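Researcher: Here's my situation. A collaborator sent me these components and asked whether they could plausibly form a single complex. I don't have experimental data yet, so a predicted model of the whole assembly would be a useful starting point for our discussion.
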Amino acid sequence: DTAVSQTPKYLVTQMGNDKSIKCEQNLGHDTMYWYKQDSKKFLKIMFSYNNKELIINETVPNRFSPKSPDKAHLNLHINSLELGDSAVYFCASSPDRGGSPLHFGNGTRLTVT
Amino acid sequence: DAKTTQPTSMDCAEGRAANLPCNHSTISGNEYVYWYRQIHSQGPQYIIHGLKNNETNEMASLIITEDRKSSTLILPHATLRDTAVYYCIVRVLYNQGGKLIFGQGTELSVKP
């Protein structure tokens, strides 16, 4: 009964490949997010969707494209992977786009070789 | 950039209270103080938040100074499972769709 689940947990791939990370939440929340945690452990927001509508798009390369088929899912597609994309990617959700606490998944560790 | 400063690391003896300080001297009147923690290899976990009054829940207590320029998160009886990185975040309610700006946090080590 995991609240926010991400797949895969680990992803190892080569430079230039295209990969996707999936996220699903069963909390009935309206808002979902992608955060990136780099090697220095800093967490930064990448995207946020509210009811399938993009509401936050930080300065992220165009190679990263979020897709929300419904409000329970927010997937992250990454094209032409680069070494610098190696990081842990966290999906999160919250009941609304305001001040409600975020619920995070346990992350996907992406390693680009 | 994060609007908070925290000590890089702290130690606490198991069973004792852990008091984690946070400075947010530039906090605005409509900004709340949030605390999250991240246990190794897990996603961040919400702990507590407050505006100006002290708050308590089943996990922790939050003490905010009267001038709101600093706060302290208190874990009343720390256990080994409380070892984690603790993040203090200031955030405007109903801002930008839930955007959290994380700083470096405090790495708390609870020791037997």
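Model: Some features of this prediction you could bring to your collaborator: The mean pLDDT of chain A is 92. The interface with chain B takes residues 4, 31, 33, 41-45, 48, 50, 55-56, 90, 92, 94, 96-107 of chain A (CB under 8 Å).
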